Amino acid sequence: MDPFARIARPATLGCALAGVALTGCQSETAAPAASGRVSVRDLMKERGLDENDVEAALKTYTRGGKGDDYMIFASGGHGGQVLAIGVPSMRMLKVIGVFTPEPWQGWGYGSQGAKEVLAGGRQEGRDITWADVHHPNLSETEGDYDGKYLFVNDKSSARVAVIDLSDFMTKQIVANPLIGSDHGGAFVDPNTNYIIETSQYPTPLGRDYVPISEYATKYRGLAMFWKFDKQKGRIDEKGSWAVELPPYTQDLADAGKKVSDGYVFINSFNTELATGGILEGNPPLESGASKNDMDYLHIIDWKKAEQLVAAGKTVEIKGVRVLPLQTAAEEGVLTLVGEPKSPHGCDVTPDGTGIVVGGKLDTHATVYEFSKIKDAIAQKRFEGKDAYGVPILGFKDTIRGQVEIGLGPLHTVFDDKGFAYTSVFIETVVAKWSMADMKVVEKLPVHYNIGHIMAAEGDTVSPDGKWVVAMNKMSVDRFSNVGPLKPQNFQLIDASGPKMKLLYDMPIAIGEPHYSQMIAMDKLKPIYKYDVGVNPFTHQPDPHRVEAGKERIERNGRDVHVYMTAIRSHFTPDRVEVNEGDTVHLHITSLEQADDQVHGFSLNMHNINVSLEPGKHENVTFVADRPGVFPMYCTEFCSALHLEMAGYFLVKPASAAL
Ligand code: CUK
Ligand code: CUA
Asked: Whose CA is nearest to atom 3 of ligand 1?
């Protein structure tokens, strides 16, 4: 055994038992005995590392107690959650419960507030407890991240969630009643007036049955503009509206910025209108959808759309005001322009003048010139109209140029030095190219098969440069084998020098992240605690909050209200007895105010676990339908007497109560 371990262990153990502050512990354990040091050279030899590895380690290693410079908010993919990750350490800091119950945060396990948020995500009254999270987008002010909110979409069930970055909690989920999936979302305009969610696979709006033979005439796409109330920090559903789109498969979207503020760009594939039907003798959807050389980039003038909506030019479908396709086409709200072969990424340059579209089945990234698009629309220089009467601009008339990227370009992000970084799926590289001469300057292999790419504030009006992260779909042999389902892999790239340098592999063991964003840490100002009795879902003192000394149990007919507090190391009351069939309302206030002094409240047999961060108030309602004796206890190791932080919940059988 190494001598340091022997010294360190009693000290650490002592800390845990005494419940003393963490900082006190660290000073005791921080300095290893000089005799324990080995030379770096010997270590390198022993671990088989070369100088490159050591450089990578030194650029990412972050000592305990030192925070990171950036935070990544990554989609948790079909894990349904959001991941917060520090850069450069690539340490996972939090999995934020969003669409999917998460017991540590008490998310979906009793908390009334969480229950109401999750209920917002019901589609037509159905509980959907998973999600396919694709694109996180931070709230912006003047095109820059402001660190206040994060929005994410659920591709599978067409939902959007609002996460409050003051406490890293999901505060709202809205379900789109019109579409069967979304993809272009959740993007914001530069001042977060709207959270934009565009559909993916067309359905009849509202999803009611229409034979698939009527796909071209009755199925539709949609661009939803969720109005964001910045004062309240919530989506205003009543103030939201949508634009009906042709039944092309709309894919990714981005909002214009600076000169192009007021516009949304959405690309699409399957302008062939293929609907599969393999058993009916048709080609599979994917080959039917890949015949045309060109698909359509959709250009939406949302400020004009907003005026038409205000003027009542909408129809109401399932409670949503929808600007009809014909109106959008005739009034100049919607315009199309060709884009090469099944495009994927759609990214607006930091200055807002260019729109970069990745080819997927093409080897180019096409850069459209916003001013040319605008002129062509103003002068009505159309090449024709599509079958739905939507005007089409000339491809050559509107592009700045094309960059020869390689096989399978997808997404593009930007740095502060005029370079763009495009993920190249098939070739499995990051292509760095100069926006000034539209030429690739470097390709960096990544492992394996990169999907999205992300850079430090790389999709804002002022990217920071320095860090790029490749978000790879596969890891194959990069990590120890965990069976046939392997983690996706984030690779941190140092992009500060003339050459890109790969620093770190980070397995993502929860779902498949698609997009993510990286924000400078100093823009985030999360709180350390709630004022005692505050309900995090309203940000107000809860009407049922409990003050020390005012704990009590009140009966009102069959409703039993338990006013409870939690503080090291007890719940008050610690005995609750009710009758079978009573409806129990727990109102629990944490009286703690010290950093990270968290309790949890769990109740045996009732599927209840609530997280009680310092000061937080939670309400829990359930029916005591099982007579018996049920321990309740604290689920967070909060003090030396944590195990003693417990009590009994007794349910008297109906027969005994008589
Ligand atoms: S998509 Cu997954 S790699 Cu949903 Cu943004 Cu491109
Ligand atoms: Cu409170 Cu453990």
From this structure: 451
